[in-house]
Amino acid sequence: MSKKLPVVTSRGGTVEPPRLTPAPPPGRLIDSPRFPAQAKVELGNPVQRKNLHHAMTTIRDKRARVAGELDNWEDLRLAGEAIKNRTLRHLDTYLVQLEENLTAAGTEVHWARDAEEANRIIVGLVEASLGETREVVKIKSMATQEIDMNEALEEAGIAAWETDLAELIVQLGHDRPSHILVPAIHRNRSEVREIFNAEMGTYGRPAPEGLDTEPKNLAGAARLHLREKFLRSKVAISGANFMVADTGTLVIVESEGNGRMCLTLADTLISVVGIEKIVPSVEDLEVFLQLLPRSSTGERMNPYTSMWTGPASGDGPQTMHVVLIDNGRTQVLSDPKGREALRCIRCSACINVCPVYEKVGGHAYGSVYPGPIGAVLTPQLRGVTSAVDASLPYASTLCGACFDVCPVRIPLPDLLVHMRHKVVEGKKAKGGVHTESAIMKATGRMFSHPRLWAAAVNAGALGGKALTGRVKHFGPLPWPLSKWTNARDVPIPPTESFRAWYARTHHEDGSLK
Amino acid sequence: MTTTSTSPGRSFADAPGSGKTVALFAACANDVMFPQAPIATTRLLERLGCRVVFPKKQTCCGQPLVNTGYYDETVPIVRNFAKAFEGYDYVVAPSGSCVGAVRHQHQMLADHAKDPGLRRDVDAVVAATFDISEFLVDVLGVTDVGAYFPHVVTYHPTCHSLRVAHVGDKPMRLLQAVRGITIKDLPDADRCCGFGGTFALKNPDVSVAMAADKARNVASTGAEYLVAGDNLCLLNISGVLGRQQSGIRPIHLVEVLASTEEES
Amino acid sequence: MSTEARDAILGRVRAALADLPPLTPEADTPVAWTYGQPRALDNILDQFEDRIIDYRAAFERCTPATLAEHVVGALQTYGTASVVLPSGLPRSISDAVAAAGLEVRLDEPQLTRIELDATSAVVTTCAVAAAETGTIMLDHGPGQGRRALSLVPDVHVCIVLADQVVSDVPEAVARIAPAIRERRPITWISGGSATSDIELSRVEGVHGPRTLHVLLVDGS
């Protein structure tokens, strides 16, 4: 194994060896700033805000149109929910069945408890299959993002090339994905052209001379750049949208054909898949292959779907591996409420409809899964101990738009509240005094003691009386109220509370005085 | 309906609410900051023949605490709510959000407390709790409540009224039956205004950015009034509108419905 | 291979599910769904045509008698120099293509990736099609070739027989399921390859064939 080691220079110092692939931004996602802090940074990027607003509006409208076309859409959602519930509640049974059928079809099955174990297995499998060119081609996969596989391969001296157009833009742009479906949605066409012009030549076929900003031509540049990589690929790495337990079939849903290139042209195929991505039976695909494309890209069907059940003689990779990863999923499964999030089929409908996501984009979430599903899934997968993870469940107004569009009916607003409860419980368990818990405790006491509340209402009216005639609105107020009043006026309290008015005009039995 | 009534409590014999006693849940923020909404609710229901009582033990639905993650602190509030409104056939509030919280969260909190007795009490109260728009349309069976409001308005369906309480198109049907009113469509009406309770304090920058979008859409309608069924959403949007000196006034749905020709 | 990780993960799963009653999956979680049902469409073939055109793919109808000339016509429209014809394609088609002076390449022995990349077009049949979604399904049986054949060349002329077209995905899955159970690879094609990755602006033709030409053969 040719692990890359720091090079010792003649002056005795060390330098990092040259990278094979473009370096992503430094640092680990889990060390990201809290959501409100990074959100503020992202809000300050007007280009991104414009890109996101345009893209999210478009994709929301498309989804609504094609979901609305099917008169049995709600039945499909209920079926999707039930099938995934059945799978999760009997996951051990289905995993064993899946393993049997994968093995019977000639696919080798590997199990990984965490990211580190998964990467060790993958690097080993790649090393055993590589030719002279130390590179692999990749199909976009959230599981490999989650375990940061590309960097593990880079460490081992293997270049992993993203072949999805958006992932290519992100990779060449030394960037991170900001969306699970359209990872470069924060970029516009001019930015993409700049990235292609600046970087393609360093890593393969350069961008054509005089490349303009037409998306068609930008996609054409990617086609040419990637084709040479496809044609010489020995090893391909994929995820999977679904694994069928009763046949050992893997399913990949895609648009561009890069997936088919990887699945067909390589000699060895390694699929890295979360243990929850199972459906019990082939027939269940009729439900999910209606729900997923309409929810995801807002199309009646995505351009290409590939299904394979072990190596096929004379057709495509003859060596196949599946790496089943846990990486926190069994932790999520152990929470009877939280496990509902494992139904997720990564369609991104909740992200596209989320008004908070639309304002800040995916980078604010410090997680490979942004938006509502990220805000409930990531703190479950990683725990709520890091600053960013503890802030994610609060990155929502609980407006509920996400549940309405979720094809597997994950109760995202309820799960956000559930995760907030977990964050609070975590704080309480650590002990100490927190301003927020002190305020909440006092408020809870007031609202459960009617006389305390009545007194507070009267005090509010007194405040209103004191200000009568002086001002109509409050302008900026001191902290913490400044968080509200920095951008908004606040009316002064009225001079008479409702309960005072009622007591003045009514008897207790409701008759008028 | 052609009859209109001006003084509170003067009900007409064949009024749809005749013989019905309503326990008014004012909602805590209305009680102290926006008494016009529960006052209008009282006057409107009395005009329609209901007897309106105000159970004094009421405080809050508990939503600000539970939605921040403080379950244990909310349980006594739920207990207080169930006790305050015990035995009433109808508990009516001028707030889709608070009704949504009662309907969607009180049972979960009773279960969290592992208290079957509380769960039974909560079940009874939840079944009797209505947003004012639901009570008018579903229980009293009226959409024309005899209101007169000769103004141009636009209506923001608040998220919790729409997606938690599920009031549907009832508020709009009530508004459309108001005499003299002109209703302008609000672009992106069902998008959140960015309030979200503690969200506005924990994520103030995002909240304001969302409110600014909503305010821009409201201003684009050219309406004189912005109507909604939740005062805190109105506070959020009108706070930005006010800072922009747009001149558009916020008004609760029930205040529009309580307005009559004689008053104007 | 060590089963340590496997046993650990299955152990974690079982521990995580300890709160659930010991029931069979079917008894524990009923699924209220009837599989394989047709969708009511006014006219299945018209719907199929509408969807294919909506994907901005080319569409023509023909009869068994005119199929071969339509295949040749389509290939000539795109200025095809060379075409790969999978084994199992009707003889009349290969004869007509050869007679038109196009270079015919056979995949026996298998063409190399480079040879395939230098081939302009492919003609295939299919296994099943779904009208509501405009989806063509290949099980890579006779006439369809291995998967790379309908992927690498830039033009794909695909022959669909009218009785292969069903209403929607559920009926289609029911028809294709036996091929999956036989462990055949399956490819679903709904229009040509496309991307919306740049500003969500749809671009047809990325890595797969940039041209999809569908010939619907209706015997009636």
TrEMBL record, chain A:
Residues 334-365 form the 4Fe-4S ferredoxin-type domain. Pfam families: Fer4_8 (PF13183), LUD_dom (PF02589), LutB_C (PF11870). One of its GO terms (molecular function) is metal ion binding. Keywords: 4Fe-4S, Electron transport, Iron, Iron-sulfur, Metal-binding, Repeat, Transport. Residues 1-26 are annotated as: Disordered. This is Iron-sulfur cluster-binding protein. The keyword Flavoprotein does not apply. It comes from the Bacteria. The keyword Iron applies.
UniProtKB/TrEMBL annotation, chain B:
One of its GO terms (cellular component) is cytosol. Residues 22-101, 153-237 form the Cysteine-rich domain. Pfam families: CCG. GO terms for molecular function: oxidoreductase activity. This is (Fe-S)-binding protein.
